[in-house]
């Protein structure tokens, strides 16, 4: 069990996370919420990368600093500029956090097994910095899986992936989570992906936990209106899963078209400034 108790954090003076309390069991928990609400910051705090108030414990033991890196695998939202390694080297590096001559047969087998699971084994000898954004994201996912962590934290892992890959990756994350009994937390924007794959959803709003629970109890029009300021219908599909359908009213479309920029452009056109 991963327990976050009274966790608060600010970059400088402004608090970004306010007294977060959370208990996560071995299952797939999705963290949802609007932009800038603190999802990434919370994952960074749990990964032991930020000095925060409050505590994070794994099975009752406080984890921070080195402990965190031993038990926790963290896949950040942005991965920076890729280094000039091959995919195979990069994923091995994910396993050992250092490249040495002591790479065992088992390590290589595990790396190939994960690359195969992800369907990217043919990329193994390609340099990372020549891959597309989506392919690089797949390699990052491989890097975090080969660590065989107890706690897997993933920040928007499928944001650069096409629909097919998104579904494939979430199937895999869910399967690995259950097979290895991992505590997996995934920050995700797509409410319908969260509904379909998460065992539990945590909703964050303005640095606080707004609600936690089953997808079918959490995803409702009131929450979506209150947290996202969007009117939406939620219906239950034939697999008993909630499906969110945002409703965009005619007045909203009109407002967007005639917003500040729209009026500015109109004025330019009228004055002949094309
Ligand atoms: N490195 C940073 N320095 C200062 N402020 C930051 C930094 N990273 C994030 N923030 C601010 O913290 C808030 C929460 O950001 P973040 O955790 O990235 O939100 P989310 O992942 O939910 O979009 C935002 O207001 C953001 O501008
Ligand atoms: Mg984020």
General description of the model:
By secondary structure, the chain is α/β, with parallel strands linked by helices. It has one domain (2-229): 3-Layer(aba) Sandwich (Rossmann fold). Helices cover 39% and strands 26% of the residues. The protein contains eleven helices and twelve strands. The protein has helices at 39-46, 65-71, 87-96, 105-117, 133-146, 163-180, 191-197, 215-218, 221-228, 250-257, 260-270, and strands spanning 2-11, 14-24, 28-32, 53-58, 61-62, 72-75, 151-155, 183-187, 200-205, 208-213, 232-236, 242-246. The strands form three sheets. A six-stranded mixed beta sheet has the order 6-7-8-3-9-10, with helices on both faces. A hairpin with a 5-residue loop joins strand 11 (232-236) and strand 12 (242-246). It is globular, with a radius of gyration of 21 Å. The mean pLDDT is 86. Bound molecules: adenosine-5'-diphosphate and magnesium ion (MG). Magnesium ion binds at residues 39-40, 77, 155, 187.
Task: Give the SSE map.
Blueprint (H helix, E strand, L loop, with lengths): L1 E10 L2 E11 L3 E5 L6 H8 L6 E6 L2 E2 L2 H7 E4 L11 H10 L8 H13 L15 H14 L4 E5 L7 H18 L2 E5 L3 H7 L2 E6 L2 E6 L1 H4 L2 H8 L3 E5 L5 E5 L3 H8 L2 H11 L4
Parallel strand pairs: 3-8, 3-9, 6-7, 7-8
Antiparallel strand pairs: 1-2, 1-4, 4-5, 9-10, 11-12
Helix pairs in contact: 3-4, 3-5, 4-5
The site of adenosine-5'-diphosphate has 10 residues, from α1.
């Amino acid at each position: 069990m991963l327990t976050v108790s009274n966790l608060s954090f600010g970059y400088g003076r402004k608090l970004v996370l306010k007294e977060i309390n959370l208990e996560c069991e071995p299952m797939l928990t999705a963290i949802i919420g609007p932009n800038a609400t603190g999802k990434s910051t919370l994952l960074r705090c749990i990964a032991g990368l930020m000095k925060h108030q409050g505590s994070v414990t794994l099975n009752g033991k406080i984890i921070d600093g080195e402990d965190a890196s031993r038990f926790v695998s963290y896949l950040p939202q942005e991965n920076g500029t890729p280094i000039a390694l091959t995919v195979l080297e990069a994923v091995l590096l994910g396993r050992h956090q250092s490249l040495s001559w002591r790479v065992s047969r088992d390590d290589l087998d595990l790396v190939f097994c994960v690359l195969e699971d992800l369907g990217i084994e043919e990329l193994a000898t390609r340099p990372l910095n020549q891959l597309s954004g989506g392919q690089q994201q797949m390699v990052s996912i491989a890097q975090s899986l080969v660590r065989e962590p107890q706690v897997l934290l993933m920040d928007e892992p499928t944001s650069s992936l096409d629909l097919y890959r998104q579904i494939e990756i979430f199937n895999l994350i869910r399967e690995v989570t259950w097979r290895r009994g991992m505590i997996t937390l995934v920050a995700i924007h797509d409410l319908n992906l969260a509904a379909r794959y998460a065992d539990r959803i945590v909703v964050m709003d303005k640095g606080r936990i707004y609600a936690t629970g089953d997808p079918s109890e959490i995803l409702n029009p009131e929450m979506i209106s209150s947290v996202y300021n969007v009117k939406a219908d939620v219906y239950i599909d034939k697999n008993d899963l909630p499906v969110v359908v945002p409703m965009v009213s005619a007045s909203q479309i009109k407002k967007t078209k005639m917003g500040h920029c729209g009026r500015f452009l109109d004025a330019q056109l009228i004055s002949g400034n094309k």
